[in-house]
Amino acid sequence: MKTAMSKRRFKENSEANRECISQVQKILRERFCHNYGTGKLFGVEHQYRHLLELLKRTVIHGESNSALIIGPRGSGKTVLLNHALKELMGIKQVQMNLLEVRLNGLLQTNYKVALKEITRQLHLENVVGDKVFGSFAENLAFLLEALRKGDRTSSCPVLFILDEFDLFVHHKGQTLLYNLFDVSQSAQTPLTVIGLTCRQDILELLEKRVKSRFSHRQIYLMNSFDFKQYIRIFKEQLSLPAQFPDESFAQKWNQNVQHLSGDRTVQDTLQNLFHHTKDLRSLHLLLMLAVSNITVHHPLITASDLHEASRQYRMDSKANIIHGLSVLEVCLIIAMKHLNDIYEGEPFNFQMVYNEFQKFIQRKAHGMYNFEKPVVMKAFEHLLRLELVKPIERTSVRAQREYILVKLFLDSNQIMDALQVYPNCPTDVKQWAVSSLSWL
Amino acid sequence: KRRLLKRKVSPQEVFFDKVPGYDTDIPVETIIKRTTVIPLLLGEELPITLNKKQTFCVKQSWDGKCFTTLSSDTFLKLKEASKKGGNSPNSSSSFTPSGIVSLLKKETESVVQSATKNDELEIQSKHGDSKSSVRKKRCSQGVANSTRTPTARKKLQLNGMYTVICPFSSFECSMFCTFFCNFSLQPLPGTPKTPQNATPEIPRRSCEAQKPVTILEKARLRLHVSAIPESLPCREEEFQDIYNFVESKLIDGTGGCMYISGVPGTGKTATVHEVIHCLQQAAENDDIPSFQFAEINGMKLTDPHQAYVQILQLLTGQKVTATHAAVLLEKLFCTPGPKKKTTVLIVDELDLLWTRKQNVMYNLFDWPTRKHSKLIILAIANTMDLPERIMMNRVSSRLGLTRMSFQPYTYKQLQQIISSRLNNLKAFEEDAIQLVSRKVAALSGDARRCLDICRRATEICEFASRKRTQEIVRMAHITEAIDEMFSSPYINAIRNASLHEQIFLKAVLAEFRRAGVEEATVQEIYRQHIALCRMEGRQSPTLSGVMAICSRLGACRLLLLESSKKYLHMRVRLNISQDDIMYALKDE
User: Fold this and answer.
1) Nearest Cα residue to B391 out of B366, B361, B367, B365
2) Taking CB atoms and an 8 Å limit, are A137 and B264 in contact across chains?
3) Does the structure show a pLDDT above 80 at B69?
4) Measured between alpha carbons, how far is B57 from B44 in angstroms, rounded to an integer?
5) pLDDT value of residue B448
6) Which candidate from A73, A128, A407 shows the least CB-CB separation from B569?
7) Per the UniProt record, which residue ranges are transmembrane (chain A) (predicted)?
8) B162 neighbors B113 (Cβ within 8 angstroms)
9) Given Cys at both, which of A28, A36, A108, B452 links A114, Cβ 3.0 to 4.6 Å?
10) Measuring CA to CA, how many Å separate A114 from each of A102, A154, A167, A213, B281?
11) pLDDT at B130 over 50
């Protein structure tokens, strides 16, 4: 009776737990993966204020402007802009008073496409449904005329957001940028151009006429936080929100996160990542890997989860391929490594590799790996297909396969590291790998 | 079309046309005083009571290929509208569909002659009888007819007295009706507005833009490049030169070219606009003969040949293709006219009009030399030696030697520009203005830059003085604004890079020093990187990790990289000087 009850209670418990776990997974996964452009902001209050003031002036006073948001990938440029826009939309005066045009350098690859997209997003009168009528020249004239007719006090301000701004620079003659900046510097429809880019040399790319018309406002995002703040971000990103349905579980979870942030190994793991990159996206990826380990029987993240995730994250992709190779193929790679050492990275061909391999067999292995040449050739071609070696120039059909010059796409450090973990590696092969002269 | 319909058409039936935009559309109101259109279901007869001459019924629609019954939606709308019209037939807002009669066919010619309503029925019957003959006639007349249509149309519009109803009631069922739904202001489904009639416009804002309140806000508004000052200081000489040039040509009634050059932001376009403005005022006062004015900008054209299209459109309002426009302009400028006005044409960003054959430039500069052209061209570009550098001899010789170059502003001039814009508004310290002017004059002499810095400085000032009382812009604010705009971002970027990214840069330097060449492969740098890590007692990264670091630095353009498919044989160069990196990394 008693056991049955406890069993049932356990069952209910685990049922509730399962619910909790799936909730946690859902919330955190959404935070790490889907929140592109809407996540939280960390340590950019100054830039945020600057951008917000600028946008406010555009909307409320009808002041034209232009600005660039510059920062490395994953530094939160889009997030910053989206946050500012969200706050802006909260102001009553703004809601119906802003037209937004979003362009992306990867999508609008030339002026013509960009122009159609602008016309479409502005719902100008030459748009019916989703189609833009008229030729390229007509569209441009139409758009410019529309913008010219407006004036500061009565027209609706237009906000242009140019994502991947650096790609617009490569449009022929930079005419799109010229025209946008020109409107923003003349008494026409109020227009603000915000460009997002990761290139630090962006101003040098602008043509002098375009550059003169750009207002030179630059907002830099630099990931300029230190490790202490990084830990705080880690905590914040992993904590459950207050409105989590199961309060006790959330409390337990958050306490655990608090505890984790003080843990030595966790700090080491994070420090390691922090030293590699300050990009928050890689932190998200790490946490994502760790969170995936959570199950009903393992409801809280542990330090070892994070450590394991970091190990997975730091895995060398090319060296991983070596683990799956046959001993013969590993031997060939070692032979190539020695050739690289001898000839200082000059390209080699199959015959040279085969000779080097033969030397090893004759001296050391006594026919243990005595394969026919075609078999060795097959192994070599497998390596070619895995792109661990690559021909230095395009191979013609007629070229003899043995004499095609190739290069090894592995570093000797990678090879040595991979051999350390290679399963059942024969000792003499290992010795040979350390030194090509070991058979002497 | 009659065959398609497969039934008899009553004289008062019209069709709902779904195909928009015939060139020959004219509003029915211009022909008949007022009409009523009643929607009917197929098979219904027009009620006898309404069988007046000015009432029409619509049963079917035509979409360019075949007849279909009216969609229920359209039907209801029309019905509603006609009821509205019926209730208040006398009010001006009553349903008077300014339907558009497409005068595709030319029976109208004969119809125009029908002066009274009474004749109408006769003519109709005549039409009915001579239908076949009319058709034959039409076939034989072919093209000639279509050219005559516009004149017929003009006649109709001018003499509203004519009662022309026949196009509707003709038994030739080639007449259709398109309706503008003036009454409901919403376009009918299936009748997209024709792009030809679209007006370019940005929607208006729902509430007025806020007026500037504080001194700083007022100053900012005046300092915006777009703000049009009352006068252009520091360009009086250039202004006078251009003014005199154009004025003398205007009075003489001849043509000519002037080439104006200068670096960006020296007030070329603004000065020329000012000249035109003054000339226009003078023309209004009858001091000088009146003239036509047009402006094109090379950057605002999709193709150099579009210049013709734009010029023609600005001068005559015609819209034609580029080649045709060139012919028409040629005719316009080369034929003598008794009362021909002089044309002043501004060509901004001239260098963009360059083509391989240079025929656009050639034509532009050739026209003023013609005897009857009366064309004055003011060409603007950035480079002083543009005519020598990119133009063929025959083009540059036609451009002539009337040149003017705008020098970059000196600091005194910039100072004057700011002061005149501020116009006694106490927003800036004198020293602050001087600092800005000197700084910009030393850099580029670009007035836009100067104004932008001032504008940014007012923002910084406003931000700093939020809590305290109002302040004016001081030196410190200007310095901050200048730093913000012109400081090199690289040093800061390196200082904020992650540890391994910094070590990688050090490794690059070390490898360069070792090899003595300013280029290295990732593999070589990787070895240096590992050595550096060992020296500092750190865990060395994997090659994948280093590749990631390398591509991140490449994306910021601290490094210049080859395509990444070469993996560890990818070559790396620095995009900044080695000293900058040393300086950025040393301070820590």
Assistant:
1) B361
2) no
3) no
4) 10
5) 92
6) A407
7) none
8) no
9) A108
10) 10, 26, 12, 20, 40
11) no
